[in-house]
Write a structure and sequence with these properties.
This protein has 688 residues and is of the alpha/beta class. It contains 26 helices and 14 strands. Helix content is 64%, strand content 10%. A hairpin with a 6-residue loop joins strand 6 and strand 7.
Amino acid sequence: MINRIKRLLSNTVALFVVLIVFLIIVPLPTVILDFMFIVQIGISLIVLLTTLYIKETLEFSIFPTLLLVLTIFRLGLNISSTRAILTNDSGYAGEMIKAFGNFVIGDEVVVGLIIFLIIVLVQMLVITKGSERVAEVSARFTLDAMPGKQMAIDADLSAGLIDEKEARIRRAKIQREADFFGSMDGASKFVKGDSIMSIVTTLINLVGGIIIGMVVGGSDIGTVFDTYARSTVGDGLMSQIPALMVSVSSGLMVTRSASEANVNADIGKQFLSQPRVLLISGCVLLCTIVIGFPPVQVIIFSAILITMSVVLTRQQRRLQAQEMAEELAPTEEIQSEASFYRNIDNLYGLLNVEQIKIEFGYSLIPLVDEASGGSFLDRVVMFRKQYALDMGLVIPPVQLKDSGGINPNQYVIYIKGEQVATGDVLIDHYLALAPSEEEDIIDGIETIEPAFGIKAKWISEDKKVKAELIGYTLIDPTSVIITHLSEIIKAHAHELLNRQEVNNMLENLKKSNETIVKDIVPAIVPVSDLQKVMCKLLEEKVPIRDMETILETLADYATKIKDIDMLTEYVRQALKRTISHKFSEAGQMKVVTLDANIENSIMQSVKKVDSGSYLALDQQTIQKIITSTTAELDKIRDLVNDLIVITSPVVRIYFKKLVDQFYPNVAVLSFSEVDNAVQIQALGNISI
């Protein structure tokens, strides 16, 4: 039944729009004209009431189009009524116009014309002009706020607060809001033009009617003026009353702010939220009797206000008493909590572990709170995007939480539920890194930069300009935390790549190359082995974006080799262009080489077992190798961005495992992993 009504209405609207065009051309009998006037008033009343009861503007997004249709409909009726007034000697244009004219004018024609003019001017200069300005400003502000709202949605999505479906709905809503207020900005011009046209039509009806009545009818000026004035005012009111309702509706639409209820509920809730205001207002009104205000009316309204104040005050006190009683009933809470966890399924919710979580002290909350201007979430989103582009891994959502169990200026970073790093920042200071120890002359609070362990100082805002002139590097608190978080994530990226994420990456690859995924996984390479290889690549900061090359290489060797370490070495060699690009600069790679004697010692000490192989060097040789490695790397530490040791392919994996125990931040590459176009420059040699 409802669907039939909707289909009928859709067809009726189409016919209605076509009918409006004929109103302008075809003369209408006064009976039909009266019916059209009633339809116009009824539709305008429906529009007005609809704007009062909707909760948000997008629930009535068709309003700008409806405003145009009603304006054209009103002008068409105005033209038809004008034709009827001027073509009839008595100015008769239907019972509706006659009734309005007699009701407003009565025995005073001039007073009636003045009242009509005031109604038109109020609508045009007050309601329509105000609505037009509000619509213009709303459209501008809505468009300006779109990027921020989009970033807020992306931040909520990255933080796991909403899913992809909810994000799409919110983005569509933002776009619809921008389109709506843009349309309202233009539609308001229709109402303004309609008001001006009403004044013009009124003058035409009055002047034209008088001329026609005197020339054609031969009546005296008084009779003609009275006849056509009544018809003119009636016709004008027939168009202005619906126009006034639509103008008020337009104003209500563009002045609505964010709320969870309709206008009636909001006014009832917010207007009566302060009983003390009602009491003061009632007392002030009582005092006006002294200056001559009518006492009966003043006393009645003042009594109403004071009574409402007393009733609302008692109601608020009763609600506060109930809230306090609930807070002072811990036994019930404990019982309810115990009954909740009596269900064993609810206990499993306690076992969930966040992949990445940051806890903030209460002083750092403004950095995270978007309502306070915090940009932390946006920075996290941009880091996730850049890391996905650089390394090919989508970082899991970062859970943010405030904590009263840590220092106010402290933050703690957790990976898989365990604390891995912590730091302290001062929200109203800058972290200053001196250009050199000799130039470190600005006073501040001594600290250590948390991400890289560099000596630094926290300086106040008033020292910022001086520090910049001297050459200090200044870092704001948000950047300090983001930098620390990014370094922690890079160091633990291999722990964050689980099998679910590998499956997500494979599904993404299927969109462009479905064949390679179906042929290799899991027929040749199980997802578990693929995950292990990719984790080992991430552990050594090797990007995994080129999934096709990784899968093809594993398909070539996985049938013959089961050792994950050796499979990873073959994948690294296949990714030599990627590795060379990451660790070289301007086509040149500055490295430290490994002496042939050390390589021979390592190869002779490799022991193979069923599960793989391991290095069995004696402790003395290990000590000599580590001492020499440390000495060579310390020499070039300040000359290069990345510390790189280059070895032969068969030695690389064993030397990397050996040096990681003592010097974890060094990259160990093999000659087979360096592209031929890259020039290798040896800055040192590790030898015993």
